[in-house]
Every structure is written in structure tokens, then in C-alpha cells.
């Protein structure tokens, strides 16, 4: 039963039609085929309904493929006070460009993928996992030409720590042109940053609001408004919920919200239930891990799963935190080994002889000279499971300092640390040129929801730490982060306990699952994630199919760099193809795809 308790209709500048805000709605599903936890009651709060037609469609916000390819983000007419439509258009532009290879000649829109003009409605809300301190965002896109015969929902979770549109290039691009509704969750992470100096966060519609004056997507347990600059709270790092432990439930709640939204959008075909509506889950990277965690949940609510390059912690694999902190320390030295040359041209500053020296001083590599330290760093990474292909593709992550960024946020998340409690002393803030923190401006805060990736640095927010000695000022912090995995003490035990909470189980018996992964993935190496997951699931007798794609690495968006485009191919076409094969299986009983190592030729020819 769906019971709206309060409704308010308002006009919103820049939107095609009215915005409906429902303060709280409760949706209860009680079928015997639901999860084994019996009846699930999800409270949806801060509900919004918006209409998107003409130059503001569901899939590209009216930008089309040409507009998505523009290098500069869509501008705000008033930098400090963007309209709702401006925020949405910019968020969609940012998330498309962060996920897909949109470079002309790369094939998107011609050989694979869609940026079709899809008019329709969006329904959004907050929901909360039982016991969670903070809500997660939900969004459902219902196309005007929703296929009432097929009654399909594609449910997804954002990749990385991205905001609510963080899987639009994955699930939206495949599902919306087919007439399916698409349901999204930011899985408890996202770009709802909170300014601790001003006491301001992000409201349901993406605008900046003062705490206490609007329902915020994230309001940390920290006092605000002190005279000195105290920085920025980031939801993934500071929610104290360890959201990764509940990724599967986040996806489940997104599916529930889809049924609720369809009841409102299509009352003539209601009720929509798990019994009469097809639910296919798809995601990549962290979103791929989230849909695999959803596959564990009991009940026939989910019909099929496709997971691309999943960050999944399974028996026999390695946790993201383990191999990330290892890579952050050793990879800049190991990449100097000439047996790995030539590295991708854009990797630039990834390799560092200064790092080799610091590793030797700390006893983390052995040898009599710098050449020996380089070889030993490389050997140690190989010995712990890193292939040379993963190291080469991971060079750009090293050059962009991505390993440290991930480790800083995840250490806080796994340990459930709040603002100012990071065990290695890290924080986040808007930074001056010499990397000293300062208060943010109205215009800077206005971009966070649309431009952020959910993990600083980015969107003007940087990492704050006490630097150690040059020439490697981040080394001390990286040692501390690594010790949270390898060392002892309360903080290390606390972080490792959080990691243990995210261990995956096999999918539900009888559920079709297809896993797609690039063999050259340098951020979430196949050997640490999908390979052990598939082995674990098959050992439990589950129906999991595995595609291993040669010459594919983790970031399709990096193929905009010429050397990456010459070396690698995008993974998204294979994710879309897996969805097509799953759909054919559900439609007419076509066989599921067999396990395969898919041989490919990189765009630049053989390597």
C-alpha cells in the first residue's frame, strides 16, 4: 500500500513542468517470493517528480552526442545559483564523460551505444537502509513510450562513488531506448558534499541548502560554522555507515522505488510488483559489485544480472583496500622497470625514483642500488598477483594519484570514521595554491553535486594532510594507510573489520549472472575480483557466465587519450551485448552466453 502523507506542488525555474515534492511515502511489499527477511518496508522521503521533453530529455538532457562531446561543461547562467535544469544537464554531461568513450571515431553512437532523445519523467527520493545514519539517493526514469507489454525495469548503481547519474551511460543508454524504466542508486556515496565552514549541504534537488532549512542528502555528525576553515565532509568517507556493506540492499531499494514510481506514472497498468515486472540489474566497477551483492538476496525479485569489471571482494581474491594501498606505495617505483616500457604516454609522472629511495629506507624493497630497487618493487607486485598488463594500464591511476585518493576515502569508510577522525589525519577542503585549506565560495559549492566524482580530489575539493619530507611528501601518509591493512592496533582492526563486512556470497540459485571484465584492467584487476568471484559462485553450483575481454582496461573514458586509444578497446560494447543476450534469454529462452576469452585487436594494431 502506498500512502502519501504530504504533497506540495511548486514551480521550478528552468524545468519543463511542475515539480512534485512528497515529504514521506511508505511502500510495503509482502509477497512470499520477496527477500527472506519477510516484508520489506522502505520509507521514501523528499520525493520529486520532473518532466523532461523537447530539449531536456531523459538520456542526455537535450545535449545529444555532439553536446556530450563538448570539452567544457554546460555553463550556469548564474555561477552561484544554477537552476535545477542547469544542474541536471551538467551532472548528466559529467557522468557520461566520466564513463563512456565519446571521442569521434571511437564508435559510440555509430557501432554501439545510444544517445537517443528519450522523453519522459524522473522520480527521485531518499531512502535509508535499516540502521544507517544517512540516506542514499534513488532515481527512476520512466520513458513516455514505456513498454507496457514487457514491463521492464533496469536497476543499477553508480560506478565508483559517483552521484545519482553515475550509471546513465551504462543502464540508461541500454534500457531507456528499449522502453524500459531505469532505476538508479548512488549506494550511499555520491556527490552530496557538506561545507563544514558554512554549514551547508546538498538538498534533494541538487541545490545547496543550509542544514536545518531543507532535507539534505548528507548532514554529518559534526558542528558547523566555526570561524576557522574546517573543510568539506564527503559522504562516502564520513557517513559512518560503511555503505559498501549494504550495496545489495541499496540496489534492492532502488528496484522497490521503481515499482512505486511506475504505479504513479502508469496508473492504468498498476500495480507493478516483482511478480509482474521484469527486473534486470546491471552495473560497472563499484556498480558491478553492487549488483552482484544484490544477486545474493533471496526471493524471485530479480530476473538477471550483468556485472562489468566489478569491484567485488570474494573468497580467494584480494580486497580493494589491500591492493590499492600496495599499489600506492610500490607502483611508482615498479613502473621504472624497463621491462614494462613503453608505458602509456599519458602516464607521465606515474614513475618516481624518489619513491624507490623512500621504499628502500623503509625496508619495503631490497637491493644495492636504484636499479635493483626498481626490479624488486616490480617483482613484489607480480608476486602478489599483479600482471604486467594490469601494471601498464594502472600507470595512469598512479600518475593521477588515484590510489591515494581511493585509500584515503575507503579507510575512513571501512572504519566508520566521522569528520576529523581519520586514523591517518587526512581530511578534505577547498585548497589555496600552496595546498592550504580555505573556505569555499558560493560558486564553488554550486558545482559539487554536478561535477564531483564522490572521491576527492575533484570539483575543487582536495585532500588535506600533513606532508612529510621531500622529494616524496605523500609517502608518510601512504605508509599509514598501508599499515591499516598490514599492522596492528585499534585503527587497523577497525578498518579490517569494515572490509570483512563487504565479503560477497554466491548469487541466488537459479539467477542468471553474466560477468564481463577486461583482461588489462589496472584499477580493479580481474585476478583480484571477478576471477575469484566466478570461481566461488561456480563452486557453489550457481549459473554464472564469464566473459574476459582482451585489450580492455578499466576506464573507457581514458580512450580519449591517444595512446590509450591505440592500446585498448572500450568495455561498454561487451556489457551492452551481455544485456542483449540476457534479454533474449528472458524473452524467448535463447541460451545464455558461454564462458569466453574474447580476442580483440586494439585500435592501434597488435601490441
User: How large is the share of residues in beta strands?
Assistant: 15-25%
Computed CA radius of gyration, to the nearest angstrom: 23 Å
Give the biggest sheet.
13 strands, mixed
State the helicity in percent bands. 25-40%
In whole angstroms, how far apart are the ends?
A: 59 Å
- Can you count the beta strands? 20
Q: If you average the pLDDT, what whole number results? A: 91
Number of helices: 17
Shape assignment: globular
The helix-and-strand class reads alpha/beta
Low-pLDDT runs of 5+ residues are 1-40
Write a structural description:
- With 607 residues, the protein is α/β, with parallel strands linked by helices.
- It has 17 helices and 20 strands.
- The strands form four sheets. Strands 1, 2, 3, 4, 5, 6, 7, 8, 13, 14, 18, 19 and 20 form a 13-stranded mixed β-sheet that branches. It has a three-stranded antiparallel β-sheet with strand order 16-15-17, with no helix packed on it. Strands 9-12 form a two-stranded antiparallel sheet.
- A hairpin with a 5-residue loop joins β10 and β11.
- α7 (320-334) crosses α8 and α7 (320-334) runs antiparallel to α9.
- It is globular and about 75 Å long.
- It starts with a strand and ends in a 9-residue tail after the last strand.
Topology, element by element:
Elements: E1 2-4, E2 7-10, E3 19-29, E4 40-52, H1 64-69, H2 84-99, E5 120-127, E6 136-143, E7 152-157, H3 168-175, E8 181-185, E9 194-195, E10 200-202, E11 208-210, E12 232-233, H4 235-238, H5 247-265, E13 278-284, H6 286-295, E14 304-308, H7 320-334, H8 353-361, H9 370-383, H10 388-399, H11 402-414, E15 427-431, E16 437-438, H12 442-451, E17 461-464, H13 475-486, H14 490-500, E18 513-518, H15 530-539, E19 544-549, H16 562-567, H17 572-588, E20 596-598
Parallel strand pairs: 7-8, 7-13, 13-14, 14-18, 18-19, 19-20
Antiparallel strand pairs: 1-3, 2-3, 3-4, 4-5, 5-6, 6-8, 9-12, 10-11, 15-16, 15-17
Helix pairs in contact: 2-12, 5-6, 7-8, 7-9, 7-10, 7-11, 7-13, 8-9, 11-14, 13-14
Amino acid at each position: 500500500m502506498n500512502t502519501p502523507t504530504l504533497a506540495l506542488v511548486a514551480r521550478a525555474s528552468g524545468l519543463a513542468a511542475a515539480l512534485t515534492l512528497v515529504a514521506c511515502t511508505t511502500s510495503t511489499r509482502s509477497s512470499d517470493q520477496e527477500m527472506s527477511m519477510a516484508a520489506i518496508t522502505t520509507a521514501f522521503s523528499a520525493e520529486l517528480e520532473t518532466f523532461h521533453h523537447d530539449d531536456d530529455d531523459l538520456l542526455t538532457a537535450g545535449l545529444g552526442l555532439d553536446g556530450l562531446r563538448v570539452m567544457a561543461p554546460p555553463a550556469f547562467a548564474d555561477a552561484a545559483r544554477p537552476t535545477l535544469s542547469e544542474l541536471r544537464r551538467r551532472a548528466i554531461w559529467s557522468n557520461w564523460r566520466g564513463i563512456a568513450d565519446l571521442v569521434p571515431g571511437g564508435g559510440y553512437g555509430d557501432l554501439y551505444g545510444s544517445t537517443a532523445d528519450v522523453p519522459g519523467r524522473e522520480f527521485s527520493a531518499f531512502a535509508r537502509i535499516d540502521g544507517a545514519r544517512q540516506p542514499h539517493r534513488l532515481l527512476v526514469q520512466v520513458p513516455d513510450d514505456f513498454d507496457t507489454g514487457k514491463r521492464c525495469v533496469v536497476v543499477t548503481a553508480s560506478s565508483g562513488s559517483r552521484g545519482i547519474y553515475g550509471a546513465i551511460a551504462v543502464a540508461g543508454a541500454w534500457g531507456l531506448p528499449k522502453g524500459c524504466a531505469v532505476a538508479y542508486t548512488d549506494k550511499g556515496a555520491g556527490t552530496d558534499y557538506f561545507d563544514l565552514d558554512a554549514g551547508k549541504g546538498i538538498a534533494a534537488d541538487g541545490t545547496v541548502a543550509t542544514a536545518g532549512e531543507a532535507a539534505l542528502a548528507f548532514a554529518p555528525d559534526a558542528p558547523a560554522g566555526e570561524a576557522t576553515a574546517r573543510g568539506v565532509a564527503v559522504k562516502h568517507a564520513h557517513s559512518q555507515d560503511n555503505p559498501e556493506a549494504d550495496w545489495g540492499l541499496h540496489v534492492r531499494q532502488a528496484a522497490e522505488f521503481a515499482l512505486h514510481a511506475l504505479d504513479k506514472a502508469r496508473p492504468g497498468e498498476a500495480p507493478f510488483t516483482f511478480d509482474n515486472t521484469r527486473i534486470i540489474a546491471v552495473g560497472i566497477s563499484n556498480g558491478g559489485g553492487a549488483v552482484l551483492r544484490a544477486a545474493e538476496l533471496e526471493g524471485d525479485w530479480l530476473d538477471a544480472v550483468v556485472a562489468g569489471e566489478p569491484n567485488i571482494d570474494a573468497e580467494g581474491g584480494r580486497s580493494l583496500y589491500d591492493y590499492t594501498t600496495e599499489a600506492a606505495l610500490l607502483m611508482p617505483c615498479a613502473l621504472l622497470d624497463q621491462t614494462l616500457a613503453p608505458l602509456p604516454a599519458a602516464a607521465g609522472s606515474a614513475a618516481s625514483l624518489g619513491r624507490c629511495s623512500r621504499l628502500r629506507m623503509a625496508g619495503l624493497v631490497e637491493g644495492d642500488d636504484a636499479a635493483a630497487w626498481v626490479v624488486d618493487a616490480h617483482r613484489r607486485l607480480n608476486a602478489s598477483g599483479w600482471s604486467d598488463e594490469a601494471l601498464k594500464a594502472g600507470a595512469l591511476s598512479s600518475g593521477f594519484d588515484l590510489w591515494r585518493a581511493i585509500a584515503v576515502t575507503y579507510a575512513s569508510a571501512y572504519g566508520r570514521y566521522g569528520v576529523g577522525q581519520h586514523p591517518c589525519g587526512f581530511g578534505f577542503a577547498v585548497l589555496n595554491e600552496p595546498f592550504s585549506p580555505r573556505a569555499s565560495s558560493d560558486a564553488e559549492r554550486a558545482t559539487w553535486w554536478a561535477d564531483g566524482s564522490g572521491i576527492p580530489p575533484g570539483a575543487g575539493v582536495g585532500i588535506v594532510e600533513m606532508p612529510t619530507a621531500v622529494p616524496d611528501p605523500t609517502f608518510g601518509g601512504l605508509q599509514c594507510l598501508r599499515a591499516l591493512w598490514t599492522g596492528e592496533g585499534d585503527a587497523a582492526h577497525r578498518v579490517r573489520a569494515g572490509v570483512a563486512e563487504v565479503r560477497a556470497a554466491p548469487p541466488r540459485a537459479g539467477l542468471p549472472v553474466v560477468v564481463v571484465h577486461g583482461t588489462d584492467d589496472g584499477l580493479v584487476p580481474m585476478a583480484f575480483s571477478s576471477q575469484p568471484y566466478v570461481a566461488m559462485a561456480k563452486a557453489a553450483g550457481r549459473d554464472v557466465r564469464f566473459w574476459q575481454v582482451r585489450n580492455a582496461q578499466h576506464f573507457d573514458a581514458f580512450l580519449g587519450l591517444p595512446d590509450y586509444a591505440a592500446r585498448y578497446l572500450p568495455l561498454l560494447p561487451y556489457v551492452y551485448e551481455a544485456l542483449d543476450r540476457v534479454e533474449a534469454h528472458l524473452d524467448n529462452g535463447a541460451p545464455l552466453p558461454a564462458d569466453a576469452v574474447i580476442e580483440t585487436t586494439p585500435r592501434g594494431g597488435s601490441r
